[in-house]
Amino acid sequence: MKLAVTIPAYNEEKTIPNVIREIRELKPDDFEGKIDDIKIIVVNDGSKDNTARVAKEAGADIVVSFRRNRGLARAFRQGIETALEIGADIIVNIDADGQYNAKEIPKLVKPILDGKADIVLGSRFKGWIEYMPMQKRIGNKIATWVTRIASGFPTSDAQTGFRAFSRDAAMRLHVLADYTYVQETIIQANHYGLKIVEVPVQFRKRQGDGKSRLISNIFGYAKRAGMIILRSYRDYNPLKVFGIVGAIFIIVGLYFGWRVLSYYYTTGSVGSRLPSAILATLLLIIGVQTVVLGLLADMLKSQRMLLDDVLYRLKKLEYEKKE
Ligand SMILES: Nc1nc2c(ncn2[C@@H]2O[C@H](COP(=O)(O)OP(=O)(O)OP(=O)(O)O)[C@@H](O)[C@H]2O)c(=O)[nH]1
Ligand SMILES: [Mg+2]
């Protein structure tokens, strides 16, 4: 079996050689002899430093370089595609900053080798965290909680960058975002009935200059990740989302409408309740429109499901040929 390790990297020349070296130290015995080939794929996302060169020198098998910075999710998707192209049976994603310990890759891969999982998440919160600033800890907890609700999967660490995917799971996921892939993949995976398992992992302090490449501002991250989560949730549950919003408008509209009507029945005129009458009409129209929008969106969801299935089958055909 072939294992591909994908490393998305943006300006990580100081830390990536060590990550690659740690992966190179893994032996087939570490995988109970079930893995005989390990390929390292680095996706250099338009780095301004020498990430590509040092990665190659350190022993990366493939370095894919984007000419300009296109975002972590795009780089992740590229890593998966390249791994599928070279015929990987299992794909592990690890960050380039050395925070995850590559020695734990066998542990991450085991549930897939044993046929017990399609996707394995390395959970830092179930494992050991050397250093995580308080605001990131809180941010992680909140984003994890939101992802739990949106995906229906009780993850303990939705933001982990240390993950393993079976070949089939990798073909099932179609990441749409460009900024981050972490929450969207969990939402999609659970939606498609893929089996997700979590294993505890170590999380070390960031090496090199210590500065996050992805998160310059925690609020900016929350906004962008929040939008991605909301969007995936809406795409998979349009009736629920639009239905709830529409229902709120309708209920408030009915309340004002009822007040106007009861006034009208007792006094015989709408009189001073005219503004309420207009408001009620508006709210009811908006509410009904929103529900209708939900019905339309639900039809789009059916299309999306079909497209997803077509894409999955297409990927299967496309990548099978090259094996
Ligand atoms: N392709 C790509 N990768 C990125 C980008 N930003 C960050 N990365 C990589 O994504 C991984 C995670 O980014 P980090 O900056 O470590 O984010 P983090 O681990 O959530 O934050 P820290 O705890 O501060 O390290 C690293 O391997 C980065 O090199 C980007 O714009 N494009
Ligand atoms: Mg990091």
TrEMBL record:
The chain crosses the membrane at residues 239-258, 278-297. InterPro entries: Glyco_trans_2-like, Glycosyltransferase_2, Nucleotide-diphossugar_trans. GO terms for molecular function: transferase activity. The keyword Transport does not apply. Keywords: Membrane, Transferase, Transmembrane, Transmembrane helix. This is Glycosyltransferases involved in cell wall biogenesis. Pfam families: Glycos_transf_2 (PF00535). The keyword Transferase applies. PANTHER family: RFBJ PROTEIN, UNDECAPRENYL-PHOSPHATE 4-DEOXY-4-FORMAMIDO-L-ARABINOSE TRANSFERASE-RELATED. The lineage of its organism: Archaea, Methanobacteriati, Methanobacteriota, Thermococci, Thermococcales. It comes from Thermococcus nautili. Residues 5-170 form the Glycosyltransferase 2-like domain.
